[in-house]
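Re-running the complex after MR caught last week's input typo. The corrected sequence lines follow. Everything else is unchanged.
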Amino acid sequence: MECQECHQRPATVHLTKVINGDKTEVHVCEQCAKEKGYGESSFSLNDLLSGLFNFDHASSLGSGTAPSSKQPAQQLQCPKCGLTYQEFTRIGKFGCAECYKTFDDKLNPIFRRVHSGNTEHNGKIPKREGGNLHLRKEVEQKKHLLHQLIEKEEFEEAAKVRDQIRKLEKKLQNEQGGDE
Amino acid sequence: MMSLQNFMNEAISPWMKEEGPDSDIVLSSRIRLARNFAQVTFPIIAKEEDLKPILDFFEQKYAHQSFKEYKNFELVAMNNLKPIEKRVLVEKHLISPHLAEHSDHSAVLISENEQISVMINEEDHLRIQLYYPGFQLEQALKRASELDDWLEEKINYAFDENRGYLTACPTNVGTGMRASVMMHLPALAMTQQVNRMIPAINQLGLVVRGIYGEGSEALGNIFQISNQITLGKSEEDIVEDLQSVVRQLIDQERRARETLMQRSGIQLEDRVFRSYGVLKNSRIIESKEAAKCLSDVRLGIDLGFIKNISKNILNELMILTQPGFLQQYAQETLTPDQRDIRRASLIRERLQLEKK
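Corrected-run output:
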């Protein structure tokens, strides 16, 4: 749903006004809501949900929806989809893939909280989009294994793994060379 | 449009008719993968001109295609469906309630046997779902991953080295995978053990829900168990963790059934046949009571009290007696009172069929 005022940004503030029994609904974005003075005393369900994500400024929780415009993080805006960091924490959703880069500095605490302390992907790598990540991950794993083998003094096995790593690194070099 | 009619009229999907491993307790296994197009804003923010090309792309590239044994994909645009029809697809778990509510520029791609459904322009651009009967999570993961590779041949996925598959919601990032099983746990429920187990299961990073997902009740003692964490663990590890909990629950449920049989066999038999009597004879029945009785009857079949009724009766009638299906069957909108009457007669008819 887009903002009723600017018709550009997504509507993230949803208000129902009841005046003398007349009900009107307002759907606007964060920015327009501030400019038009909507929502001064509102507290949406999303505010509750976003409590989960709003991690690095606990102070703003005490004062309800007080706009913490002094925080530089709040000024962050995704160049691709226009979502601001404040809107992100409010709706709890990213607007596009680029948002992940734009808000990168702020994401670790959120991910840690949602994913039991994890912040980095450890699973499937897509065949095409993943590029040579497959190879690089394999090298990483083998190096880890090598380390373990040396500690256990299993040198014969370690030598084999070392050779495998050399082969993989060569392959990686060739691939990178081929890309250019 | 032959297949669309099938999607609507048959309560149980063709794949459900096959019996999977541990099917006395695990009704089905599911893998869901969330994927996005790299260059397109996510559906919550995207405009028509962003979403329409994705829909067209699927129409051109995947409609009427086949992947391995999954033949004849049908692309069903949400805007072409009546509200009752959408509800039927939700009740069959072929689409999510979210997709039914956000119908503009959204669609679902369904394989003929309904084992695969790919929701398009849901919260993410793609929600790939694959079902298997019984307890077959590993098999489901393998197939889902192959399907994912097949789709990726033509699509540039939003993927980041550090964060993995990028999704609209931070709770799905990483693998984008939700693995889940539907379990029928009547003995654990009867003996009040389920409620004590749920907090322990939650602590392991897994979630327990009712049959229709988030916030829904465990109708008919059917519980859905799935992973919560999607980031930092591999798909295989997530599935393995879920599997080990499911295996324990299967053992516990079997043990609880044995204990019940030994200690109160006659009471159990009485309960099963009373419920059977209600289903066979009632003229008005609410969905909650129907679900409870169906659960008892299914348990009665598993324990050998009731013979000559197919095990699928629980899955089938649970879906068939949902509001959407009842109305689809009646071909008209029904009030809740009318539904309770329809439900009762439908169950009687269905049980009659079993006797042959």
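None of the earlier attempt is carried over here. The longest strand of chain B covers residues 26-35. The beta strands of chain B are 26-35, 74-77, 107-110, 116-120, 126-133, 159-160, 164-165, 177-184, 206-209, 222-227.
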